[in-house]
Amino acid sequence: MKRLPIGQSDFRQIRNEDAYYIDKSLFIEELMHNHAQTLLLPRPRRFGKTLNMSMLSYFFDIDHAEEYRPLFSGLAIEQSEEWQHQGKYPVIFLTFKDLKMATFEQAISKLLKEFRRDVSRKYSYLFTSNQLDDLDKEYLMNFRKGEVDIFDLEDYLREVSKMLGKHHGIAPILLIDEYDAPIHAAYEHGYLSEMVGFMRNFLSAGFKDKDLITKGVITGILRVAKEDIFSGLNNLATYTVLNYPFSDKFGLTQPEVDQLLEDAGCAEDQQKIAEWYNGYTFGQVEKIYNPWSILNYVSNQKEGLKAHWVNTSSDGLIKEILPKVNAKAQELLFDLTEGKSVKATIADHTIFQDLEQAEAETVLGLLLFSGYLTASHLPHSGETLEYNIRIPNAEVQTAYKRLLKRYLNASETVGQNELLTSLLEQRQQTFANALSEYLKTSFSFFDIGKRRSVPEKIYHAFMLGLLAHLSREYHIRSNRESGYGRADLIIYPKDRDNPKGWVLEFKQKDADDKGTLEKLAQEALAQIHEKEYLNEIHAHGHTEVMCMGIAFDGKEVACAF
């Protein structure tokens, strides 16, 4: 069997070294048949984006047409009518996958270095072109010298495209790989607004004028909202993992994997391999495999089935978002870890400003496009973005659980998510246990263990803070007049069809109180009924009400239901 090109993403190198290559050249045919001038193709990490973009670059390159033609010998594109486009266009190919700087200034400095290198090496022939005027050459010379400002950088795609078009007499192919990598870094390091502003101007200048380019392709992981990045691109078509076009051009299909396993002599392990690395659905194509994982497995069969892709993925953005997820999202995430499929709405694009809210559809969309989930469109759901969502395979299941355990505190230390989930599901004992554990491990910022007496209002404020995530979907009433007194907390859904409700009454144990916490919790519970705190919830039609008396003493707590 030929050598497997693990970690290689340069099409020419793979073909020249006669390494194992799974033919994706009909990507070129589908691209040229597509009506859109510019296409955005988001796919998860390690699914072949850079290799495909490299293939496009070598295929269209007019400057090395004869040299690169043999790279496609024996591939399917040779038999396509689109073969006529081989070697016919100037190409601009940029990758932003390593543009992950800690500051905006560092990112711009690195970008300038990349552009200076390209001007000096790739496009050096433009300095002597008879088709370019003095202003064009002055612009290029300024880049060669490094004497440019941020406005020159923003105009780079437009100006170089224009010059290549003048010189060759045909508009170029423009390829941008991993366009969102610097945006992820900017979000994590706190310079999002500067980077979004730059990328908006940069991409708009390069892609919005339909006469400047023949075709444009942009890849990344996320589909960033048009109003954030692509506001100037009226000719942009987006095809994500949820869409039908290009659904078999990234990742490996079942027939492709079958052939690979046969060539590698491990076809008998097909079912086990599928359980570990199969399971993605892209558009209408089911049983998509992660190429990185399957190639690593075949290359190291003696090591058995284990996680490969998850050990290469950067989860910085997910790390930022998961601790902020609201109660609804938490419930869905933990259902998924149990192997369930869930029906949910997905945000098919990302607005970075909305990530702070960490609502269910935003978080699920982030995990889906990052490769941690897969989804299929529910029949009869019309124009809504409602999908059946699940974890694709055993490999991702291990990573998914580890993510939640790390970032939602779902380990031995109880986090807010477990408290809220058990509360919303009205699981009394689970809530009591979770509250007790949370106070022991996460309540030290009140320093309550060192106080002889802690005001009840501190516990009240603590509970209000825990419930803050619920305010979008629930009414939360604090010290609200109800019946013959003021209940500490009353909670009920804004959805009147949801019959649930909650009434919480708190008691704080005084230093000279000789009774038990359990007795004090029972007194708090009795007060709910004696003073008829249920009246408000019943008035709104909520009948399945959980009443809780909660007694505190330092980090100790007792609950009565």
Automatic annotation (TrEMBL):
Domain (AAA-ATPase-like) ranges: 5-230
Pfam hit, one: PDDEXK_9
Output the InterPro entries linked to this UniProt entry. Answer: AAA-ATPase-like_dom, P-loop_NTPase, PDDEXK_9
Q: Which residues form a coiled coil?
A: none
The record's section on PANTHER family has:
AAA-ATPASE-LIKE DOMAIN-CONTAINING PROTEIN, CONSERVED PROTEIN, WITH A WEAK D-GALACTARATE DEHYDRATASE/ALTRONATE HYDROLASE DOMAIN
Protein's recorded name: AAA-ATPase-like domain-containing protein
